[in-house]
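Usage

Read records sequentially. Each one opens with the input sequence:
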Amino acid sequence: MKDQLNILSLREQVYTYLRKQMSLGDLLPGSTLNIGKIAKQLGISKTPLRDALIHLEIEGFVTILPRRGVRVNVLELLDVKNAYYAIGMVEASVVLDSFDRIEQHHILKLEKLNAKMIQDVEKNNFQQLFNNNIEFHNVYLDISNNELIKNFILPIKQRLYDFPRQNYISRWEMRNCKEHALFINYLRQKNPVKASKVLKDKHWSFEYQKDFIKKFYNAKE
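and closes with the structure output:
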């Protein structure tokens, strides 16, 4: 049992290490990983490394190529579109299903986080902006009784921002904050339908955000 726990812990450490390498830009989209080389660099066996890579493949970060190594996936425009659709549907559903558990302190926390995000944009602190944005959305996701929801959504969001980018768009981020403010306003008005529609039809709508998305990802249709 102890050996199994150690292997599990090591797998999680390797997973975290590889995700960090992606976020730092040391593992770039389209590149191929050599399992043997990485295992040697980390001083570990291939078993926890393979387990970590399987985890990453399930989340969409890599593709395991039999007898050819592992490829870091490129995020295509269709991937972004599918991600926005999935997140929008789930978050809107959570608001509708859990609205009666959203209390005043939740709304105050949302307002506080949104104010922090505006400051992050003004300071060009986009890493902190991402962290505060995740926390903002988790305020109401955490209210849900469905424990699988965060495990489903977070990796999708991480993929949307998985590699360093120099083309953050302040105007887009400020508009996102305005959408947050509108969402909060509908929560205050006790109107879950309109609040959920802000998420599904604006904030996480690929078509509504399309022009900014294409600029952010330097993507062409």
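Summary fields computed downstream for this record:
- Confidence is low (pLDDT under 50) at residues 1-5.
- The first helix runs from residue 2 to 24.
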